[in-house]
């Protein structure tokens, strides 16, 4: 792992993913979590402040980057919910089937190498009556913006920890075994190739 990946990237991602409009999206989504929660891509713990201790019993935070989790430990100590941090990739989640009430994925599907495999694992560990809460940036609807996303992504990925700007989030959710129950989508403030956002709730497709 390079010096950049170890010492610069965690702080860069923490800053970019912690700007005001993105935190507003987190604040609108995360309080819906309930029961036993799996947060995929917990990173530096930017969501932790928004969990409702009256509804959530425990949080298991999954992230392959130990450097990001180190930043999150201070945030975990500030909340009244037990947080377990696990340094693993989302493509193989070490947990029994149907063991979580809520799965949370925020600004994570853009970086996972095999997003569909990860979503299938999230589906496997989610209870049949559970919910996936997601907030992800991805492919914009306009062809002109899509072209810019596709042009920029090869140069953006090495800078931003493998982040893709052009992933079709609803299609990935469907391929991973989910049905979207609620969806809001629009641009946040900022350059359009980076700011098209999908926020909502997905449930197992069999429901």
Structure commentary:
The protein has 207 residues and is an alpha/beta fold. It has a single domain, classed as Rossmann fold, CATH 3.40.50.150. Helices cover 36% and strands 27% of the residues. The protein has seven helices and seven strands, in the order ααββαββαβααβαβ. It has helices at 3-16, 20-29, 66-77, 115-125, 143-159, 169-175, 192-195, and strands at 35-40, 56-62, 83-86, 100-106, 126-137, 178-187, 196-204. Strands 3-2-1-4-5-7-6 form a seven-stranded mixed sheet. α3 (66-77) links the parallel β2 (56-62) and β3 (83-86). The radius of gyration is 16 Å and the shape is globular. The N and C termini lie far apart (42 Å).
What CATH architecture do you see? 3-Layer(aba) Sandwich
State the share of residues found in helices, binned by percent: 25-40%
Spans of at least 5 consecutive residues whose pLDDT stays below 50 are: none
CA(first)-CA(last) distance: 42 Å
The H/E string reads HHEEHEEHEHHEHE
Major sheet strand order? 3-2-1-4-5-7-6
- Radius of gyration over all CA atoms, rounded: 16 Å
What best-fitting shape do the alpha-carbon axes yield? globular
- How many strand elements? 7
CATH class designation: Alpha Beta
Tally of helical runs? 7
Largest sheet: 7 strands, mixed
Task: Write down the domain tally.
Answer: 1
* Oligomeric state of the chains in view: single chain
């Amino acid at each position: 792992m390079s010096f950049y990946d170890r010492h610069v990237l965690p702080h860069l991602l923490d800053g970019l993913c912690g700007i005001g409009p993105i935190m507003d999206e987190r604040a609108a989504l995360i309080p819906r979590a309930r029961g036993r929660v799996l947060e995929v891509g917990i990173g530096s713990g930017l969501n932790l402040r928004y969990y409702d201790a009256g509804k959530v019993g425990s949080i298991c935070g999954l992230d392959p980057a130990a450097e990001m989790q180190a930043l999150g430990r201070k945030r975990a100590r500030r909340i009244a919910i037990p947080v377990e941090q696990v340094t693993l990739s989302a493509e193989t989640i070490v947990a029994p089937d149907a063991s979580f009430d809520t799965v949370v994925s925020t600004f994570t599907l853009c970086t996972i190498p095999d997003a569909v495999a990860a979503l299938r694992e999230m589906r496997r560990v989610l209870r049949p009556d559970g919910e996936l809460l997601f907030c992800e940036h991805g492919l914009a609807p306009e062809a002109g913006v899509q072209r810019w996303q596709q042009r920029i992504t090869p140069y953006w990925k090495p800078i931003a920890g493998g982040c893709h700007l052009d992933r079709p989030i609803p299609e990935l959710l469907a391929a991973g075994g989910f049905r979207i129950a609620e969806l809001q989508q629009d641009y946040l403030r900022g350059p359009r190739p980076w700011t098209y956002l999908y926020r909502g709730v997905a449930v197992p497709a069999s429901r």
